[in-house]
Amino acid sequence: MNDAGGGGTAPMYSLVVVAASAGGLAALAELLTALPAEFPLPVAVVQHIDPNRHSLLASLLARRTSMRVKEGAAGDVLAPGVVYVAAPNEHMIVAANATLQLSHAAPIHFLRPSADRLFETAASECGRVIGVVLSGTGSDGAAGVAAIKAAGGAVIAQDEASSAFFGMPHAAIGTGHVDFVLPLDRIGLALINLAAATL
Q1: Residue 21 annotated among the catalytic residues of the structure
Q2: Would you call 179 a catalytic residue per the annotation?
Q3: pLDDT per position as a tens digit, 132-182
Q4: Which of 21, 114, 139, 163 is catalytic?
Q5: Going along 11-168, which residue ranges are E strands?
Q6: What stretch of H or E contains 142?
Q7: Which of 16, 25, 57, 193 is most open to solvent, judged by the fewest CB atoms within 10 Å of its CB?
Q8: Which entry of 76, 91, 114, 140 is annotated as an active-site residue?
Q9: 8: confidence class by pLDDT, cuts 50, 70, 90
């Protein structure tokens, strides 16, 4: 994306939010591998995992990226270059002042954490954010991408050919609110370009 303001310096986007489910671990690993340590935005990730087992997701992803990766905790202030991974069986939401909160509220469409909940709160509290919907079954994230677009954000969905499971990307695309449908190996570069855009 080109500089929309003709020489502006304020970043256009404040945060990247990512949704993934079945087939998502490999997709997340490839995506994060493409992002540099100095990536200028925070990244918040919901990956659907077994709610009854200790999650190794943050440590697994940390091996694949030069960015810092941590499990999101209540009170974390979203910082550039850090990947925040939702904990099992907790909604990860963005609260005032770009602070993470965890909630044990009821599952949304049988899911906790819910990508929709993350996306909707991110758009509400942070304004323009970038949403990414990766491989997964079901439709989690579809309502969230509508909220992101309503707040002036941008949305990327993984294409069918590179998705192990196309349910979630397909549902997002079906909303009419997806800006880019891309193969997995092009999403990282798209994020780098969007993150560099200024107002």
Answers
A1: yes
A2: no
A3: 999 999 999 999 999 999 999 999 999 999 999 999 999 999 999 999 999
A4: 21
A5: 16-20, 43-47, 68-71, 82-85, 91-95, 99-103, 130-133, 154-158
A6: helix 142-150
A7: 193
A8: 140
A9: low
